[in-house]
Hints:
The chain has 2 domains: 3-102, Ribosomal Protein S5, domain 2, CATH 3.30.230; 129-276, Phosphoenolpyruvate-binding domains (TIM Barrel, Alpha-Beta Barrel). Helix content is 31%, strand content 21%. The chain contains 8 helices and 11 strands. The protein starts with a strand and ends in a 6-residue tail after the last strand. It has helices at residues 56-70, 86-101, 137-140, 164-177, 196-203, 219-236, 251-255, 257-262, and strands at 3-9, 23-26, 33-38, 43-49, 75-81, 129-133, 150-154, 184-188, 210-213, 243-248, 271-272.
Amino acid sequence: MPRKRxxxxxxxxxxxxxxxxxxxxxxxxxxxxxxxxxPGPGVRVEVTSKTGPMYEARIREVVGEVLxxxxxxxxxxxxxxxxxxxxxxxxxxxxxxxxxxxxxxxxHQPLPLARPRQGSPRDHLRRTRLYIPGNNARLLAxxxxxxxxxxxxxxxxxxxxxxxxxxxxxxxxVLATLDFGDTELWVxxxxxxxxxxxxxxxxxxxxxxxxxxxxxxSPVEITRLAGLLYELEGRLGLPWRVWIMPIIESPKGVAQxxxxxxxxxxxxxxxxxxxDYT
Length: 278
């Protein structure tokens, strides 16, 4: 039976993050964690773990590290986990903090990579593409084992609207933590005017090789994305140029395909979204 443990600590006052409301993130599904936060004096953590007392101390460490990195001095945190890895718990806590404190620059910081990663050449072989839903902790737990030419962590169609904010943090943690070998790493963001810009600002902190832009219909969209990438690469200190893969999903996109391909030197390939083509 899962056991509950409590942990108290006092954090010093300062200019850290203030929680404005109660919020939760994640689920009680296998390999996932449900994290609830609310404002409180000091820091109080409650852990309900599938593994009983075996990993409670480590879960508390993860919570403490994340809270410390955001400067959170007052919070009550409840973690219910079902065999979740550390990076999943960290991402779910970040998602809950985002919902409790509101968007801000604090959530746009780069994460250190657990393993060295090199940039991807422009002519990387892209025969196979594997899409993984960006909010599915169970599938993401093993996404480093399949070995496709391109792995696409999806924030768009595979993620329901109410979970898109949380998926950004899970994708960023997965990118920074797992060892993907020679696989080229992409994130499919949402259209820029429908959450895609915030997707970009969060997930680039995990240092992907490229960004997929869905429903591309105009070279103007590509130029805008390229400009954002240039800005964020400098701000985040990314060690390589991030590529662009526009996805053509409409007759208008087909008509503009040549101009879309020429819109930026970052465009290394075009993809055809046959399932959504309308």
